[in-house]
Amino acid sequence: MIKKLLTGLCLTTSLVAGTTYAATDYPTRPITVVVPFSPGGATDILARLLGERLAEKLGQPVVVENKPGAGTMIASNHVARAKPDGYTFLLAASSLGIAPSIYSKVDYDPVKDFTAVTQVASVVHVLEVAPSLPVKTVQELITYLKAHPGEVSYASVGVGTSTHLEAEMFKSMAGVEMQEIPYKGSAPALTDLVAGRVQVMFDAWASSGPFAKSGKTRVLAVTTDTPSKSVPDIPTISTAVPGFSAMPWLGLVAPAGTPAPIVDKIYTEVAAILKEPAVQEKFTSLGLDAIGSDPATFAAFIEKDIKTWGKVAKDANIRLD
To answer: Secretion signal: which residues (predicted)?
Structure first.
């Protein structure tokens, strides 16, 4: 009996020592951050910026690996099945939680298969209209749409995308009707918005900002329920539609089971990086608002986000095979 007790004590001590070792000595080799988009875009630039700063702080290389495709599901599936040892992370987007609501087959669970690390940033999205549409505020737009039912169309950058869901949520909450015209990306949609072939669009500020600044489109509001740090002078949709809130996001997640000390270490380092003036300036230029929330807050946000867009997709009957 004494021998068994001593053996158990030694085993427990070794497990505790192993956990402490993992927390204090991590990392001992390169870390990979998987990006679900092609190189060159805002998310890729963000990932490489964070990777460079993290490498300096952690003393190990941080490799950015691009795995685009299937509505970000290729990258998500890859990370969900990676070893939970703190050496593989996903720079996830809102689509991580949206996908199960719109695709008939998704091979991962956005909550059970991942560990939230930190919400890195919100992607500034705006509601804008063609200059030919005689409205200058969200309330004027709502009034116009109610006076012209079925006559106005909106551009989306693809069925099931965050901008598509934002428009459908706006229709539902404002009690208005608009016809969706789907496009393969923001550029062709903006071309038709400028020309007046479509009248309304939800889009990222990063792509629409130059058009708005030159007067080719008219931005009415941002989609978040509080003003954006990047464009603080633009009002929110919620001023005219109480309760409207849409925050497209980017955040770090790890495979489920990644040790908490490692998750906390990465969160702490990233949160510190996000407070650096040079980093915040770069984020603003990319149309992003830095956040840096803790793991528990980010996990709760993801669960709420999944429910929000799940309801929108169900109510609007948005489903893809």
So the answer is: 1-22
Predicted TM-score (pTM) of this structure: 0.89
For residue 53, CA distances in Å to 46, 58, 272, 312 come to 11, 9, 10, 38
Residue-wise pLDDT for 231-264, tens only, equals 999 999 999 999 999 999 999 999 999 999 999 9
Distance, CA of 260 to CA of 55 (rounded, Å) = 20
Which 8-state DSSP code applies to residue 94?
T
What is the C-alpha to C-alpha distance for residues 214 and 172, in angstroms, rounded to an integer?
31
Residue 260 exposed, middle or buried by CB count within 10 Å (0-12, 13-18, 19+): exposed
Name the nearest CA neighbour of 218 among 191, 237, 193, 251.
193
CATH of 29-122+247-315, one of 2.60.40.1400, 3.40.50.2300, 3.40.190.150, 3.10.100.10: 3.40.190.150
What number of other Cβ atoms are within 10 A of residue 5's Cβ?
9
- DSSP symbol at 15: H
DSSP 8-state class, residue 235: P
* Domain 125-223 indexed as CATH 3.30.70.3400: no
Identify whether the C-beta of residue 241 lies closer than 8 Å to the C-beta of residue 251.
no
